[in-house]
Amino acid sequence: MTDSNQTITDERLSAYLDGMIDEAEARALEAELENDPAAGRRVAEMARNDRALRHHFQAAARRPVPGAISDMLEPAHRPEKGSWFSGLAERLTSWGTVPPPLQAVGAVAVLAVVGIGVLAMLGPGTVFNGSVGETSLVRALPSTNPGVSRFLDAQPSGEVLSLDDSARAVVDMSFEHADGRYCRQYRVALSDAPSAIAAIACRSGSDWQEVLMQRIDGAVGESGMFHAASGQASSLLDGYIVDNADGDIIVGESEAELIKRNWSRP
Amino acid sequence: MNLAEEELKQAISEHLEALRRFSAALTGNPADGDDLAQGTVERLLEKSVPRDATFAAWMYRVCRNLWIDQVRKNARMTTPGQDDLERRMENLDGERAVMTMMRMDEIETAMQKLEVDQREVLALVAIEECSYREAAEILEIPIGTVMSRVARARKRLLELS
């Protein structure tokens, strides 16, 4: 289609793409496009450009939230300075570019019990009946719950896994760690609890290891997506990703291929 | 009556991904987009949002107005020099396949080459998937103007891709 065409204008094609013309007009335009292959290619190119734009800027928006933004959205009821939580949080954020030290296990072992309880619900035939607790926490344990490993092995990012209507889990993103491991950020929420768990696990050998875990305030929406109650949702995790990720997040076909290869390198 | 602070923070958090997407589309790249998103969050927290307003529309409007201020302060943003995209255009084969999609590295440059009024309407309609009426309300222009601008923006993108 060219501008010399008097009937199929770019404005009509554009409005057609946006669903801004009525049904009869849309059918009439489609009939005209049948007889004008150039215009058909043009509208197809417009549609593909739109899709490329959405894909590109959606990926940009899913990068880790900058600390300057998440800090502004911190809840008013932050833990008191000097509490065990703030000490832990400071330690987490000061890890910088090195992986979480395994010796941190000792300091957080008590907290890990809470995490294990939450994660246990992903195992077959298990029921989670505890509360998430008051803590934000980290752990670096030898391996994850087997149910979590299966979930991380196979679940594409953004697809919610529902468990008997009692809990939902979703992988937020996949990325490659600077040390060469594949890592995934995910969340688990109980339907009847005001909190959820956000965590990062990295592939180590044939298993996944959680390297960071954090309680977040939020709820499970009707769509199955998580709605964080505040911007503090995963600021610690975001900081870890910013400091340790190598390259862009892994999305779409690249992630599907990794899942197909069971997270092994080609 | 405005939203209380905690309500406001919650609303921003729920719309943060859309804000960052819109900001990146307006500025043409994720880094500048996050700067714009940060400024928008600051402004929203400072001025709050009327309780009876549609939050997303209000947020887009604040973001867009901040960006326009930046554009006016920085003429560089609207008059980029010779760049990779133009070199590619000069090398384009006239027989190129018409169904090729823009490469990812061309997208940001292409968005930056659009006129300001085309970029903002394309970001709202093609990326945020607002209706023409919603875009018209956010930009405070007639629906017919939205229609013509988004068509011109798409035409320009075809020329650039």
Automatic annotation (TrEMBL), chain A:
The chain crosses the membrane at residues 102-122. It comes from the Bacteria. Keywords: Membrane, Transmembrane, Transmembrane helix. The keyword Transmembrane helix applies. This is Zinc-finger domain-containing protein.
UniProtKB/TrEMBL annotation, chain B:
SUPFAM superfamilies: Sigma2 domain of RNA polymerase sigma factors (SSF88946), Sigma3 and sigma4 domains of RNA polymerase sigma factors (SSF88659). One of its GO terms (molecular function) is DNA binding. InterPro entries: PhyR_sigma2 (IPR053866), RNA_pol_sigma-70-like (IPR039425), RNA_pol_sigma-70_dom (IPR014284), RNA_pol_sigma70_r4_t2 (IPR013249), RNA_pol_sigma_r2 (IPR013325), RNA_pol_sigma_r3/r4-like (IPR013324), WH-like_DNA-bd_sf (IPR036388). Residues 105-157 form the RNA polymerase sigma factor 70 region 4 type domain. Residues 12-62 form the PhyR sigma2 domain. Keywords: Sigma factor, Transcription, Transcription regulation. The keyword Repressor does not apply. One of its GO terms (biological process) is DNA-templated transcription initiation. Belongs to the sigma-70 factor family. ECF subfamily. This is RNA polymerase sigma factor. It comes from Wenzhouxiangella sediminis.
